[in-house]
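Reading a protein record of the kind used here takes little practice once its layout is understood. The reader may check this reading against the record printed directly beneath this paragraph.
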Amino acid sequence: MVREEGQETVDQKKLLDDSLHQVKLEAAEMRHCLEKSLLLDALKHASQMLAELRTSALTPKYYYHLYMEITHELQRLELALIDEFQKGNRRPDLYEIVQYASNIIPRLYLLITVGIAFIKLHEASRRDILRDLVEMCCGVQHPLRGLFLRHYLLQCTQNLLPKSVNEEHVRLGTHFEKKTEDGTVHDSVDFILANFGEMNKLWVRMQHQGQSRDRERRERERRELQILVGTNLVRLSQLDNISIDYYKKCILPKILVQVVSCKDPIAQEYLMECVIQVFSDEFHVRSLDVFLKTCADMHQRVNIKNVLTALIDRLISSYGMTEEGREIQENYGLFELLSEQIASIVQSRSEMLSEDIVQLQVSMINFALSCYRTRYQFVDKVFATTYTILQGAIVPKTAYNCPLGKELGKLFRIPIEVYNDVLTLLKLENYGLALSMLDHRGRIKIASCIVMNMLDERTEVNTVEATEKLLALLSVLLTDQVDQPRDYEKSDEFVEEQTLVSRMVHLLRSDDPHNFFNKGGRCRLMYTYVPLIFKAFVLSREYYNNRDEDVAWEEKAKAIFQFIHQTICSLLNETESASLPFRLFLQSALVIDTIPIENREMLAYEFLSQAFAVYEEEISDSRAQLAAIILITGTLQKTSCFSEENHEPLRTQCLLSAGKLFKKPDQCRAVISCAHLFWSGQIAGQSDRMRQSKRVVECLKKGLKIASQCVDPYVQVQLFIEVLNHYICFSEDGCPDITRDMINELIAKVSEALARLEMSSDVEQIQKHFNNTVEHLKVKKAETESTAATIASLSQAEI
């Protein structure tokens, strides 16, 4: 196939070269005769030169090269004729003489050339010559030769067409001009339309030439020639003194008749796009109804989407957000007209691809957002129309990655990106309805896009109504769906989506958010409830901060903590993980401790007791148990709302639970951490910490005893060092029952235990830990001695 095309190119070039050689010979003879003022001989050679355009062997591409070379020579002929006439060598019969040429192609090219010269010299009526030329060209019915002949006519008359509105105006001139009937701009319109109609017929006729197997090549050649036909419309658009009314009633209908009557998809699509591009914006606005009605009558194979999209894009670029544009849009109801007519056109085309329909709606929504930014009902109407047109065709849901799904995704993302405000998006009542046409993955993508926009723009939803609308729109992220894949909640995508939702919760405000999130299924609760609870913490703090302005703040705060308790219990019952509810119970107790509401102690005690219950009933892993005990002791250490009556059983329970841990190392670490409760804990109503040094020492001794019971010597030494560090910590904090002898005794015990261990990487780490502890003691001792010496010197100076 490639070889055949290559050979064809070689053959075409050879044919072109042969023709150009002959053209150059005849052109040289023509110029020679013109130099001698032998007009008739020059016309004879010009006719022989033009005979080369009679060929049918050249393709449009190579025929065009030949045409350009010959018409360049014809321009010289025209200038020479004008020059001869101006010198006085006038031949008024020349226009008739050239009509005796034996072949029609040379005859008509010469007739046009001489006719143009006569118009420029005012030798005859411009109107009559133009009318005669356009009619005479009908003699060439071969599509390729006829198209180039008429294109030559159009080129030559480009700057010679009548432009005045009234005929009597053009009859006035200098004394050198003859008072002939030159015509008006209406004659120019008739001339161009007549030429356009004939050229369109020739162009369409090309599809019927040759064999059926060459159809693809013929279509390609036709597309190469389409600009010749379209140039007529360009010339029409360049005419002056054309009123909008005249365009709408006379010019456009005649163009559209030609477009519809040709019944050729290629011609119809190209010519409609030409009309859109070449005529002025105001013409389009005033004649939009006529244009759109014609679109409905075009061939079914015409890609009407391209035509309508080009029209809408033209309107957007011309009448975007300008004052003039807004006035025109309102006065002429462009959106309503476009929407109604496009819906009618789509319904009349049963074979139109669904993705093409959606692309049209994408153009419509861009038009609405560009020209009617604040008219939300127009954008909403696009989604309503899209749903109405497609709902019968979409069963089952549209896959997100198919052509239709991609176009729908583009449609749904446009208002998100343009408005950049979720609150505005919520005004589109049909957005969610149209979104339901996508499959589960598609709805997830769009919903995630909405949430990401909220997070990026920090858009807060502050009303219950807006929150309810938003959560309904994002239901695919919040609740299990009928069409979601099996085991979807185990996927990485699910985790990412729920993380987004959890971040979004901080931007919401609703009287009953629990109503939305508790429908999400057990897998979603652990993601959505946590930010909801922390949002409730913030709200309770806001109530407290505004206590001077709201007398009912305590009741509201209590209601918040009741909601938190209910939510954590729900999370505990619905999820498999006990760690999260456990931590939330502790965090709630800490928050309650900072807000002095009535019965604060009772509420905090309830949350801590629930945490103990979760620890005892749900947490069985030894590592998790140790972490839980340390968290409980840390929480209790930070609270200050408990009386001795309630604080004592809580700290005692911590110590008991620590002693019941399964592994000895865990027991040791948990018990020594409980020592902080007796030293740093605080009872309600007391300004000082507990400072129960005897209980602190008891805890540390118990921890040391448990460490001594460990069989593994490496673990035992490590535990000894940890207990030693606690002794030092409490000693430095002023615990009176911890003596230097206790610390020295424990240091000796660690040194002795380390000496018994064989050297290894683990032992090196333990030794390093111990050395750091000893070094710390030395530094502290040096600081103490320095301080004592300073005090002594000051005392001596005073003496």
Summary: The two ends are 118 Å apart (CA to CA).
